[in-house]
Amino acid sequence: MFGILPGQNTLMEYYAMGGFVMLPLVLVSIALWYALIFRVLNIKSSRTNPRELVRLARKGKKKIEGLNSVSAQAAKLAVKKSTEISSRVDLKASVDAEFSHIKESLRQHRMLVRSLVAVAPLLGLLGTVDGMIETFNSLSDMALFSQSGGIAGGISKALFTTQMGLAISIPGLLLGRMIERKESNINRELDQIRDLVCATTHTR
After folding, report:
1. Which of the pair, 112 or 202, is modelled with greater confidence?
2. pTM to 2 decimal places
């Protein structure tokens, strides 16, 4: 009654080629890209340096209101705290406490990304082992082709699952490293903002 969607046959063929590890690989791929997109949207860096952000926040410039970066929001928060707390020591402790929550939110899904990047090639290797077992079983029966796949099917499965595992892992690894580098830069900017705000508190 219902027609087959374009490309559905191809997807089913890919699924059949990889065997039982294809479903876990697909789930890992979906979870990995969800985590990566979440981190990209959550970690927003600023092109404005910390000193300028603090200056704009102190002067109450409306321009900083339009900056949606983590550093800009942190600068506004730190300057607001400086108007409420006069002691430099207490201010630093308060800002550190607030910034720790920000840093914690930046770390969300970081370990998930790392774990999935490591799991994907291992699942591919599992499929490779399964394919090689099928190949050697076919060799014992001297079956080039059989209902279960035979020698050709086993080798194809072994290579295909390895390829899929690496195809999922490599982009996730590269993008994950880029996001982690941006996270480290933001953490460094937060520390600079804290020091800048606290350094000028005792002179005000």
Report:
1. 112
2. 0.77
- Are 113 and 176 in contact, with CB atoms under 8 Å apart? yes
The residue count for the chain = 204
Residue 48 CB contacts under 8 Å (≥ 6 apart), including other chains:
56, 67, 69, 71, 72
Q: Yes or no: say if 54 and 193 are a contact pair by the CB < 8 Å rule.
A: yes
Give the residue ranges of DSSP H helices in the chain: 8-18, 22-42, 50-59, 70-84, 88-106, 110-141, 150-199
Residue 203 per-residue DSSP state: G
Output the six-digit token pair for 112. Answer: 């998930």
In this predicted model, what pLDDT tens digit does every residue of 53-65 receive, in sequence order? 888 888 876 566 5
Which DSSP letter does residue 114 get?
H
What span, in angstroms and rounded, lies between the C-alpha atoms of 53 and 64? 7
Domain ranges of the chain: 49-203
Return the SS3 of 31: helix
Q: How many other C-beta atoms can be found within 10 angstroms of the C-beta atom of residue 195?
A: 15
Q: Find tokens 């099917």 and name the residue.
A: 153
| Whether pLDDT at 2 is above 50 | no
Q: What is the pLDDT of residues 95-147, one digit of tens each?
A: 999 999 999 999 999 999 999 999 999 998 888 887 777 777 766 655 444 44
**φ/ψ of residue 80, rounded to 5:** -60, -40
